[in-house]
Amino acid sequence: MGIEDKLPSGILLTTVEHIAGLGRKASVWPATFGLACCAIEMMATGAPHHDIARFGMERFAATPRQADLMVVAGRVSQKMAPVVRQVYDQMAEPKWVISMGVCASSGGMFNNYAIVQGVDHILPVDIYLPGCPPRPEMLLNAIIELHKQIRHYPLGANRTKAVAAAEAAALAATPTSLMAATHVHGHHEASADQPDHPSFVGRNLLA
Q: Which residues is 185 bridged to in the sheet?
């Protein structure tokens, strides 16, 4: 549906924010940050089979100063974290971030000192994309969801209030170290033909 279908008898009644949102969502330029295997799926999204150009995103910017979307595709090491932040700081405002894949979102299988346990420790993330790795169709769906946010993105003083509210909500969020455990791990010292042996002890490794 084009904008001409929303015009009542040729008279346009709207807001500057709405018009700016329509323009921004159709002209997002990604500054890709391919760090691991998720980057292969991101590259496939830009290939002709999936054709990300349909969304006005055919230009993957080679410089952060000409980009307003960062797709963090893959795990972020402690050594790479300051580089990711520097690229983000150099991007044009307003800017958005998609955390692509479980490694970028939470560290994934790399639960160790070398990997940042979630890129949201160093960047404000707008869309979390699950998967290991997520398919190109999933990235396209994340982009469509981001477009919905961009369309309703406030301007001026309203934007300042929205950013302050988002930061306050992030500070008030419960740290992952204090969240309730989601898995119960255990060990079994008996043989395989004795599944009900009392030596089975459940241990909560997240407590």
A: 203
Using the predicted structure, report yes or no on whether residue 207 has a pLDDT greater than 50. Answer: no
Residues 74 and 144: their CA atoms lie apart, in Å, by 20
Is residue 69 a contact partner of residue 45, using CB atoms and an 8 Å limit?
Answer: no
Contact 206, 182 (CB under 8 A): yes
The burial class, CB within 10 Å (0-12 / 13-18 / 19+), for 77 is middle
pLDDT, one tens digit per residue, over 140-191 is 888 888 888 887 776 666 667 776 777 677 667 666 667 676 656 555 444 5
pLDDT tens column, 67-116 = 888 888 888 888 888 888 888 888 888 888 888 888 888 888 888 888 88
Q: Are strands 69-73 and 96-100 parallel, antiparallel or unpaired?
A: parallel
Q: Describe the crossing of helices 16-25 and 136-151 by its angle, rounded to 10 degrees.
A: 160
Global pTM? 0.69
Distance, in Å, from the CA atom of 162 to the CA atom of 168, rounded to the nearest integer, reads: 10
Q: How far is CA 62 from CA 66, 130, 157, 182, in A?
A: 8, 26, 31, 41
The answer to whether the beta carbons of residues 45 and 136 sit under 8 Å apart is yes
The closest alpha carbon to 154, from 165, 143, 142, 139, belongs to 165
